[in-house]
Amino acid sequence: MSLQMKVLEQVFRLTFKPRMATVERAQQRIAAPKGSTRPPARLQRRHDVRTRLVDGFPCTTVAPRGRDAERAVVYLHGGAYISEIAPQHWALVSAMADAGVRVEVPHYGLAPQHTHRAAYPFVSTVYRELLQDLDASAVTLAGDSAGGGLALGLVQTLAEADLPQPRRLVLLSPWLDLTLSNPDVPAVEAHDPWLASVGLRLAGEAWAGGDDPTQPRLSPLNGPLAGLPPLHVFVGTHEICLPDVLELGDKARAAGTEVDVVVCEGAVHVYPLVPAPEGRAAARRIVQLVSR
Q1: How far is residue 192's CA from residue 202's CA, in Å, rounded to a whole number?
Q2: How many domains does the chain have?
Q3: CATH of the domain at 7
Q4: For residue 47, what are the CA distances in angstroms to 69, 85, 93, 100, 208?
Q5: Which of 252, 206, 248, 245 is nearest to 229 (CA)?
Q6: How many CB atoms lie within 10 A of CB 265?
Q7: Residue 225 has what pLDDT?
Q8: In this structure, which long-range contacts are made by residues 51-54, counting pairs with CB atoms below 8 Å and at least 24 apart in sequence?
Q9: Is 139 exposed, middle or buried (0-12, 13-18, 19+ CB in 10 A)?
Q10: Residue numbers annotated as active site
């Protein structure tokens, strides 16, 4: 583990962990006003950026300036389904656009005002519209944390929506089971400086909107894993998502899906987004995956 990762872990433990560590604090955070989905000015100066409404929700397109993109990504940001896109997400999106990739960023509605019932048709429409410009073989579906869970859930529904599978699926620390019922979770949670199961379960209930949280659209670890595109997953050993990611790798391989699970020792949740050597190396690998 790098010195930077060690320092970040201590900072996260002091600043982030308490925010969702109790029922009261989690409820306050879930109910708090949502932030802006507006792309940063720096991103708009660097790339061709436009935002449109799709099914009533904003979707931002970030494209390389002055050239046509031959590859594209639909990127679903994390935030426990209750928080808006963050600067770290935009930084990865910008790196993808620097590599010549067009990135669609659907700003799905957040809980508790919205649930998964609105997100699935919205993101499906964004994907369908993208396929009017590019073949599915040139498109990657990607997401981190909650967005990673939504991305996996989405590819499991593409067949019923009469849509082709994308070229590949790239997931960063995906939240795969809203109930966090894996018996190995408590031991790993003790080392997670960021996430707390108490708050996550409450956020998951809000996202489920009264539906069974174990159903595949909410917990895609329980969904079909055969017939999926090649799957690339990045996860750290100091994060609550590790047990379910390892189970996903085993189940997907057993179902005949090509899987590459990268486990980074000592790394925190969504480590490819953090300013540490491990994170920067993983981010470069992700950009390579989606651009080549």
Answers
A1: 18
A2: 1
A3: 3.40.50.1820
A4: 12, 18, 10, 10, 35
A5: 252
A6: 10
A7: 97
A8: 54/106, 54/122, 54/125, 54/126, 54/129
A9: buried
A10: 145, 239, 269
Radius of gyration of the chain (CA): 18
DSSP code of residue 186: H
pLDDT at 117: 97
Q: Could you give the 3-state DSSP secondary structure of residue 279? A: helix
Q: pLDDT under 50 in the chain at which residues?
A: none
Residue 66 is predicted with a pLDDT of: 86
- pLDDT for position 67: 85
Task: Point out which residues pair with 75 in neighbouring strands.
Answer: 142
Tell me which DSSP letter residue 132 carries: T
Check if the beta carbon of residue 71 is closer than 8 Å to that of residue 102: yes
CA distance 94 to 108: 20
3: exposed, middle or buried (Cβ count in 10 Å: 0-12, 13-18, 19+): exposed
pLDDT of residue 107: 98
pTM (2 decimals)? 0.97
The rounded distance, in Å, linking the Cα atoms of 242 and 184 is 9
* Residues 64-69: contacts with CB under 8 Å, at least 24 apart: 64/97, 64/98, 64/100, 64/101, 64/102, 67/100, 69/100, 69/101, 69/102, 69/134
Question: How far apart, in Å, are the Cα atoms of 81 and each of 6, 115, 186, 201, 245?
Answer: 27, 8, 22, 11, 18
**pLDDT value at residue 263:** 98
Which H or E run contains 231?
A: strand 231-236
Q: Residue 17 belongs to what domain range?
A: 3-291
Task: Supply φ then ψ for residue 62, to 5 degrees.
Answer: -115, 115
CA distances from 216 to 38, 149, 152, 155, 203 (A): 31, 10, 9, 11, 17
| Residues 108-140: tens digit of each pLDDT | 999 999 999 999 999 999 999 999 999 999 999
Residue 89 burial class via C-beta count within 10 angstroms: exposed 0-12, middle 13-18, buried 19 and up: buried
Q: Which residue has the tokens 């899987």?
A: 259
